[in-house]
Structures are given as C-alpha cells and as structure tokens.
TrEMBL record:
Segments for region (Disordered): 719-756
One GO cellular component term: plasma membrane
Biological role: Potential negative modulator of chondrocyte differentiation. Inhibits collagen fibrillogenesis in vitro. May influence chondrocyte's differentiation by acting on its cellular collagenous microenvironment.
Keywords: Disulfide bond, Extracellular matrix, Glycoprotein, Leucine-rich repeat, NAD, Repeat, Secreted, Signal
Subcellular location per the Swiss-Prot or TrEMBL entry: Secreted, Extracellular space, Extracellular matrix
Biased amino acid composition, Basic residues: 719-735
Residues in LRRCT domain copies: 305-353, 665-713
UniProt organism field: Diceros bicornis minor (South-central black rhinoceros)
InterPro entries noted in UniProt: Cys-rich_flank_reg_C, Leu-rich_rpt, Leu-rich_rpt_typical-subtyp, LRR_dom_sf, LRR_TM_domain-containing, LRRNT, Toll-like_receptor
Stored PROSITE patterns: LRR
Keyword Glycoprotein: yes
LRRNT domain mapped to chain residues: 27-61, 385-419
Self-association state and partner proteins as the record states: Associates with collagen and binds to collagen fibrils.
This protein's name: Chondroadherin-like protein
C-alpha cells in the first residue's frame, strides 16, 4: 500500500514545468550572467551585434538592453520557447524583420523602447499570442499600418509614446480586443481617422497628451465606448463644442489641460453623463458657461485660466453652487476681485450693469487680446482659395504643401487655418509678414526648408501661434525682431541648425515661451542675457552642442525651469554656480560630457527640487563623498552607468531613490568598496554594479559579493547591518526584467500596467 501511495503522489512532487537540468545550467554565453535558479539571463551593455547563441533553452527572462543589435532577424529567438520577458531597450534597433518573434508563444512582456524603429512590417509581431504588454516608446515611428498588431489578441497595454506619429488610419489597432491602456502621448498626431480606434472594446484609458490635435476628434474617440480615462492635455485646441461629437457614456476623467482653449459650448460634454473630473487648467478661458448634461460631475479644475469674474460669470457660480461641483481657479479681474479664489465667491459678489459695472467692461476689453495687426476680417463663411500645389482641409482646418519643391512661402490659405505644414520645401528666406490673414494659426511647420534667415517681422499677425517648427534648417542666428508678432508662442523647435549661441535678443519677443529646443547646434557657451525675457520657460534642451561653460547668471531669468538638458556637450565640470536660483528644477541631464570627477557640493543648489539626475557616459573616474550632499530629500533616480568608476562612496543621504543605475563601471571590489557594498545591501534596488577586479571577483554583483569583503576590517561586526534611512521597496520590485527598480507596474507579478 505504501508503494501505491508513492506512485499516486509522484506526479504532485514533480515540477509543473520543464526542469533546468544541471548540464543545461552550465551553458551560458561568455558575455552574459545566468541565474540558473530563476532562469534569468542578463547580457546588458556588451556591444553585442546579434542575439547570443548559447542562451539556455529554458530561460524565462532575457535582458539584452544597451547592445548594438540594429536588426532583429527572422526567428532570432526560436530556441527560447519558454521566454516570458524580453528586454531590448537601447539596442539601436532599426528593423524588426517579419517573423522575428515566432516561437515565443509564452512571452508576456516585450520591451523595444528607446530604439530607432521608423516602421513595423506587417508580420513583425507574429507569434506573440500571449503578449500582455508591448513597449515601443521612444522610437521614430511615423506611421502605423492596419494589421500590425493583429496577432496580439491578449495584449493589455500598448505604449507608443514619444514617437513621430502624425496620423492614425482606420483600424490601426485591429485585433487588440483586450487592450485596456493605449499610450500615444508625445507624438505629432493631428488627425485620427473616424475608425482609428475601432475594434478595441476593452479600452479603458487613452493617453493623447502632447500632440498636435487642433480639435477634439470626437467621432474617432466615440468608437471606444468603454473609455474611463481620457488624457488630451497639451494639445492646441481652441474650442470644444457639441458638434465635435464626443460621446463616451463610461468616461469618468477628462484631461484638457494646458492647451489653447478660449471657449466651451454648454453641451460640449453632454454625451459623457458619468464624467466625474474635468481638467481645464492652463488654458485661455476668461469665461465658462454652465455645463449641461453632467449630473455626476464632482470636480472642475480651472487653475491657470484668465477668469473674468464680472457679470457674465454669475451663471457659472450659480451652477457650481447648485450642482455642488468643486472648482479651483482664481479671478484675473476686475481689479477688486483680482486673485480671489473662484470657490470663495457668491453670485452677488459679481457686479452687473446698474451695479456700477461699466468700468469693468472697459477693463475687460483692454485685457482681452486684440486682433493681430495685418489680419483681415473674414467674410461670412467665405474662405480664401487654397494655393496651387497645396491641400486645404476645411473640416480639420489644416493646410499643407509638404515636399512640393516650393521656392517661396505661398500665400492665400483659408483664414481659419490652424495648422500649416510647409515642410521639405526650399525657401532660404522667410520675408516680413510671410503669413498674412492667418490670425487663427496655432501650429506652423517649416522643417527641412533650407531656411537661412527670418526677416524682422516674419511672423507678424500670428497672434494665436503656439507651436513653431524650424528644425533641420540653415539658421545661424535670429535678429532681435525675427520672432515679433507671435506673443503666445509656447514651443520653439530649432534643433539641427547652425546656431553658435542662444538667440537671446529674439527670445525677448516670446513672453509665453514654455519649451525651447536647440539640440544639435554649435552653441559653445551660455552667458548672462541669453535667456533674458523668458520667465515662463519650463523646458530647455541644449543636448548635442559644443558647450564648454555655463556662466553664473546665464540661467537666472528662467526661474521656473523644470528640465535642463546639457547632455552630449563639452563640459568638464558641473556648472554649479549657474544652477543657483532654479528652485523648480526637476530634471538635469549631464550625460555624455567629459566630467571625469564630481567634487563636493556639485549639486547643492538644487537640493530641494531635483528628482532625476543623469550622469551616465561622462568618463567619471572619481566621485567625492560629498558630491551629492543636499540632494537627499527628493532625488528619485540617479544614472551613473557606463563610466570609469572603480570606487564609489556610500550614499546614505539619498533616502528616496527608486532607481540607481551603476552598470558598465569597472568596480574594484576590495575593502575600499565595503561601504558601498553595505549601502547597496540595505537597498532593495537592482543597481547593475558588477566587479571588474580582482580576478577572483570578476563578474560578481557588488551587492551580492559578500565573500569578497569578508576579510575586510570590521566585516564581522557589521555584516548584518543595513544602512538606515534607505527606503525599502516592496519585495516584488526585485523581479527580473524591470528597469532596475523603475517598475510601474511590477512586471514579475503582473505584466500589464494597471489601469486606474
């Protein structure tokens, strides 16, 4: 009877899946690290040009990020049928061949972010029937072909943010029956076909912020009837009305923040009856009507709008009081109410004619923007004819003459044009008043036009312009009056021109400038006065120039600066003095500079604001113990990978770190490194630090190489001690395949991003 019982129990004692046999476990590519217990293989930053051959067949997680694969060939992973997580970030991938992933029927996560993909062949993703999450963020995708995602029936999250998409065709996501979150932010989308989102019945969250949408694509959005969260902030909308056709019965949260909204129609959201939160922050609304059909609206966000609390605001206040909708925002005028919070006012506080409000009406008229000079009045519904060789779409209010070989800026576009695309033509000179009659223009594209000069007043009359694209031209400077006439310009793109210095005199005409892009020019220094007049600047991109110094006071006028990118320049030291007086700075990019050493207090001026610091690929050989002093309170990520560090002091002051990357450094694991080993042991973070010396420790993780440090003085007394103050991450953050610890959500327990 005992033998019978053993036979019956035997199947329960055997592992459920295939076993990793001893002989198989010994096979591991020379450039990789194999964890035989967890079946994880890591070959990060090894300059590999193809997928290694000798990876154990039973591998479940494969990390190849930071290599030079360039092309993923057909059936590249066919010998790894048990893979569940595949990380191919930062591999310079330019092409994924058809059938590259065939045989990976168990794969749950595929990460192709931060590569150089410009397109995906029709069958590139075949064979991934179990895939739950696909990361394509940070590529150069310009178009999506219907059917590209047709084989991904189990996919829950698709991330296409930070690409170059301008248009979504009908049935672009056909086959994604279970997709719950679609991320399309930070593209150049201006048009969505009416059926672009058809065939996505499970979609709950859609991210479309930071695009070029000129109007709410209501017809396209209404295909996704199950949407709960819709993010469309940072788009140049000027108006939303019922005619936009937005009908989303399940929608709970709608973000339309930081756009160009000047008016809302009362029934704009009437077919979204379950809307709970409406975010309209940072627009140009001076008044707002009571919104109809929103019986469940709980919160209305209005901060950053020039609200006029005169007589015309009484219906809004009465509606807010009647419906008990919570609101924020403050009055811009009249004078006696300037700065008053909207939710503290009663309708009786607002003056109407007969209450002495006549002066207020005159004040309002002076504060509203006047029609730009040179903009003719439109005849009733009569649009100017479209120039030859151009296309003018009246419905979307877009006009374009892309790639037509034009030798001069054409004229005669419809007066209501909001987006004008003149890319890839050839006019070396943009003359004064080059765009007459376009007072409603919001976005102007002049990339790849061979432009060498903007005459003074070239933008006269463009009072509504927010986005100006002058990338990839021949500009070496801008005259003081070159940008006059566009006072609302917020985003200026000047990448890949010939600038030798920041065009500070021209920028003085742009009081609303939010983001300045000067990457890949020939700027060699920043001096006081370069940013005078740009008090509203939040993002400054100077990557890939020749900057050798940033003088104290050069950044001073931009006190609201949040992002500063100085990577890929010629800085030999951190410009500490220039970073004084930037209390809002969140992100500093210094990677790719020949820094070599960091001295004490290098980042002290930003101690109470900085969250993300990039110092990777900077030739760093030495970091002083006090280099990061003062950065503890808010720093979340620290990038030190691909340097020449043999030693690094412990960093106990960085108590809130969620990500630290030390990979690609030749650490010498001797007693000098013991404090770092102890500190890392007290963190539940994946840091990527490995020993390069002495020979007996080569390839071991610094964090786990306890045997290397056992002979060090004081080891026995403190070996169990963890560094106090380091924030403990949940155990699930240690899962393989995550970006160090930047795991939102955790990919080991759930490969699908949670949809809130």
């Amino acid at each position: 009877s005992q033998s019978v019982s053993l036979v019956l129990l035997l199947p329960l004692l055997l592992p459920l899946g295939p076993t990793w046999h001893h002989a198989t476990a010994q096979r591991c590519p020379q450039t990789c690290i194999c964890d035989n217990v967890r079946r994880h293989v890591s070959c990060r930053h090894q300059n590999l040009t193809e997928v290694p051959n000798a990876i154990p067949e039973l591998t479940q997680r494969l990390d190849l990020q930071g290599n030079m694969l360039k092309v993923i060939s057909p059936a590249a992973f066919q010998d790894l049928p048990y893979l569940t997580h595949l990380d191919l970030r930062h591999c310079q991938v330019e092409l994924v061949a058809e059938g590259s992933f065939r045989g990976l029927g168990r794969l749950l996560l595929l990460n192709l972010a931060s590569n150089r993909l410009t397109m995906l062949p029709q069958e590139a993703l075949d064979g991934l029937g179990s895939l739950r999450r696909l990361e394509l963020e940070g590529n150069m995708l310009e178009e999506l072909r219907p059917g590209t995602f047709g084989a991904l029936g189990a996919l829950a999250t698709l991330n296409l943010a930070h690409n170059a998409l301008v248009y979504l065709p009908a049935m672009a996501f056909q086959g994604l029956m279970r997709a719950r979150w679609l991320q399309l932010s930070h593209n150049a989308l201006s048009v969505l076909a009416p059926e672009a989102l058809a065939g996505m019945p499970a979609l709950r969250r859609l991210s479309l912020h930071h695009n070029e949408l000129q109007a709410v694509p209501g017809v396209a959005l209404s295909q996704a009837q199950g949407l709960v969260h819709l993010e469309m902030g940072h788009n140049p909308f000027t108006y939303v009305g019922e005619e936009d056709g937005l009908a989303l019965p399940s929608l709970r949260e709608l973000m339309l923040d930081h756009g160009a909204l000047q008016a809302l129609e009362p029934r704009a959201f009437a077919r979204c009856p379950h809307l709970h939160t409406l975010d309209l922050r940072g627009n140009q609304l001076d008044t707002l009507p009571p919104l109809q059909g929103l019986g469940q609206l709980h919160r209305l966000r209005l901060q950053g709008n020039p609200l006029w609390c005169g007589c015309q605001a009484r219906p809004l206040l009465e509606w807010l009081a009647r419906t008990r909708v919570r609101s924020d925002g403050a009055c811009r005028g009249p004078r006696h109410l300037r700065g008053e919070a909207l939710d503290t006012l009663r309708p009786s506080d607002l003056r109407c004619p007969g209450d002495g409000a006549e002066d207020e009406e005159e004040e309002l008229a002076t504060m509203r923007p006047r029609a730009p000079l040179g903009v003719p009045k439109e005849d009733d519904g009569v649009a100017k004819p479209c120039p030859r060789a151009c296309v003018c779409a009246s419905e979307s209010r877009h006009s374009g003459c892309e790639g037509q070989g034009l030798r001069a800026v054409p004229r005669g576009f419809p007066n209501d044009t909001q987006l004008l695309d003149l890319r890839q033509n050839h006019f070396p000179l943009v003359p004064r008043a080059a765009f007459p009659g376009l007072g409603h223009l919001v976005s102007l594209h002049l990339q790849h036009c061979g432009i060498a000069e903007l005459e003074a007043g070239a933008l006269v009359g463009l009072g509504s312009l927010i986005y100006l694209y002058l990338s990839d031209n021949q500009l070496s400077g801008l005259g003081a009056a070159a940008l006059e006439g566009a006072p609302r310009l917020g985003y200026l793109y000047l990448e890949r021109n010939r600038f030798r210095r920041v065009p500070g005199a021209a920028l003085r005409a742009l009081p609303s400038l939010f983001s300045l892009h000067l990457q890949d020019n020939a700027v060699d220094h920043l001096a006081p006065g370069d940013l005078a007049g740009v008090q509203a600047l939040r993002w400054l991109y100077l990557s890939g120039n020749r900057i050798t110094q940033v003088l104290p006071g050069a950044l001073g006028p931009a006190r609201e600066l949040e992002k500063l990118h100085l990577d890929r320049n010629q800085l030999r030291k951190v410009p500490t003095g220039a970073l004084e007086g930037l209390p809002a700075l969140l992100e500093l990019q210094l990677s790719g500079n020949p820094l070599r050493a960091l001295h004490d207090g290098a980042f002290r001026p930003m101690g109470w604001s900085l969250q993300h610091l990039f110092l990777n690929s900077s030739g760093l050989e030495q970091i002083s113990p006090g280099a990061f002093s003062g950065l503890g309170p808010r720093l979340q990520s620290l990038h030190l990978q691909k340097n020449q560090l043999q030693a690094l002091p412990a960093l106990p002051g960085l108590s809130q770190l969620e990500l630290i990357d030390l990979s690609g450094n030749p650490f010498r694991c001797d007693c000098q490194l013991l404090p770092l080993h102890r500190w890392l042991t007290g963190l539940n973070l994946r840091v990527g630090a490995t020993c390069a010396a002495p020979p007996r420790a080569r390839g071991q993780r610094v964090k786990a190489a306890a045997a290397v440090f056992e002979a060090c003085p004081g080891w026995a007394a403190r070996k169990a001690k963890r560094t106090p103050g380091a924030r403990r991450s949940p155990m699930k953050r240690r899962r393989w395949g995550a970006d160090k610890v930047h795991v939102v959500p955790d990919l080991g327990n759930d490969p699908v991003a949670s949809v809130q």
